[in-house]
Amino acid sequence: MERCCRTCMPCLARLWNCIWPEQHYSPRAEPEEPAEIRTVAGDLRVPEPKRRPAQLYAALFDFEARSEEELTVKEGDKLSVIEKRGDYVLAKKLTGSLESGLVPASYVTLLKDEFAKYKWYYGNINRQKAEKLLLAQQNKSGSFLVRISESNSDEYTLSVRNESKVLHFRIQRSSIGSYYVSYKISFATLDELVGYYQKNYKSLGVPLVLPCAQQRELYDMEPWEQPREDFTLHKKLGQGHFGEVWEAVWTTEKKRVAIKMLKQEDTRQDEFVKEVQALKSLHHPKLIQLLALCSRGEPVYIVTELMTKGSLKNYLESPEGQLLILAHLIYMASQVAEGMAYLEDRSIVHRDLAARNILVGDNLVCKVADFGLARIIKDSVYTASRSTKIPVRWTAPEAALHQRFSVKSDVWSFGVLLYEIMTKGKMPYDGKTNKEVLELLTSGYRLPCPGRCPSDVYRIMKECWNSESAKRPSFHDLHSRLNQMYSSLYYNTVQV
């Protein structure tokens, strides 16, 4: 193909239109490898936008339709709410007739999928761990578990032991929120899907006999403290507010990892154990996974998964990062918002959300790192002193001036991170001192709209920088809006 101008819309449209062919999944074991695609920015992999499923609702009371526009429902019926219309909601049944219509809003309630109560649910464990568990001696053929998909956090994987092998079946979500392995039959909940295939195992070709025998609680309490000699440092990746970061090899596990080194003199020992315990309980595809600790001796090692392309800050400034187009940038920002929404639900405050603390892997996968780490650093290190180490340029005024950190101060930081993304790594308030930045912010000044940044994206930044923290958007709202922008760019190749 002849080289053309990057802004040539006919060429841009042709390239986008051929990115992802339509795919169909049959009810058989599927690999979790992403498909390879080409983009206008070169050989970078980006996935098709998620068609986020509607939230699951249930009818609280019986309701009899009084017109053709209304929908008759029975107490307990599972519903997908499409939109709200005044005192009513437009809802669709997820089972039975699959009809849709209006139902009084007070007659329905939001359901949260609380899968943790089921013995077969193992949350965010990877394919390798699932196989290790199922092939353990106490499990027999027919043992199974359900886990979050590694390639799509809105989907799940059913892993089943079949003699000496483990088969993996992708559980997808439809646009109305139902679950299915085969598009021929879907279910309102994961529990219903599992129950069906336990009774109709021939549809899968392997029986589901009993949930994985090893208790999740025992597995989760595997010793995190590991011998320091099990790790061989390979190369230094960088240095931040909290210490050096190294790429290393975990020799006993035969895998590459990242190690953050902390000096014991800089850590608050009273907070360290408590905070690390909290970090171990967090599992989400958009958060860096904690793998091990070496807290005996100097320095402290915090061992996490390794992201091959390093920090988002460095990646944006790299030659590859400079090739990224708007759709790529919005996609990465959406992933960060997704990870932060998970922390928001658990009232966990990051305190240092910035591009340097987002890590990038293959296929433009982004994960939030260093969440909660600020809490275990001594106040003398993490305060606004003359030789300040508090990230003033990313910190909300109420947090920088009065130490009032909250989820909403993280939202402010996200607005600055979005500025970093849209400028491909430019320093916020470049040329200004921290003192000058604080004076500017208290006077009402805000960062200007970056060049070639769509007005809708800059509007989101300004909402994040509202002086009244309560008026800043939630991370769930930010994720939803950015995901919609990405879908629009991906499918229509138009500017938002």
Notes on the structure:
Belongs to the protein kinase superfamily. Tyr protein kinase family. Its main location: other. One of its GO terms (molecular function) is non-membrane spanning protein tyrosine kinase activity. It is an enzyme of class 2 (transferase). By secondary structure, this protein is of the alpha+beta class. It has 13 helices and 17 strands. A 5-stranded antiparallel β-sheet has the order 4-3-2-1-5, with no helix packed on it. The chain has a 5-stranded mixed β-sheet with strand order 9-8-7-6-10, with helices on one face. Strands 11-12-13-15-14 form a 5-stranded antiparallel β-sheet, with no helix packed on it. Helix 8 packs antiparallel against helix 10 (407-422), helix 8 packs antiparallel against helix 13 (475-492) and helix 10 packs antiparallel against helix 12. The longest helix has 20 residues, at 326-345. The protein is globular, with a radius of gyration of 24 Å. Mean pLDDT is 80; it is low at 1-41, 216-222 and 376-388.
CATH class identity of the largest domain: Mainly Alpha
Report the strand count: 17
Helical element count? 13
Give the H and E element order: HEEEEEHEEEEHEHEEEHEEHHHEEHHHHH
Please mark out the parts with pLDDT under 50 across 5 or more consecutive residues, or reply none.
1-41, 216-222, 376-388
Q: What Rg do the Cα atoms give?
A: 24 Å
The averaged pLDDT comes out at 80
Q: How large is the share of residues in beta strands?
A: 15-25%
Sheet having the most strands:
5 strands, antiparallel
Structural class label: alpha+beta
- The name CATH uses for the topology of the largest domain is Transferase(Phosphotransferase), domain 1
Q: Alpha-carbon distance between the termini?
A: 28 Å
How many independent structural domains?
4
Helix content: 25-40%
CATH architecture of the largest domain: Orthogonal Bundle
